[in-house]
Amino acid sequence: MSDEFTHFNSVGQPYMIDVGNKAETKRKAVAKARIFMALSTIEKIKNNSFSKGNVLNVAQIAGILGAKQTSNIIPLCHPLGIDHIDLTFNINYEMQAIEIESKCSFNGKTGIEMEALTAVSVAALTIYDMCKSVDKNMSIGDIRLTHKTGGKSGVFNAK
Question: What residues does each domain of the chain span?
Answer without folding.
Answer: 25-154
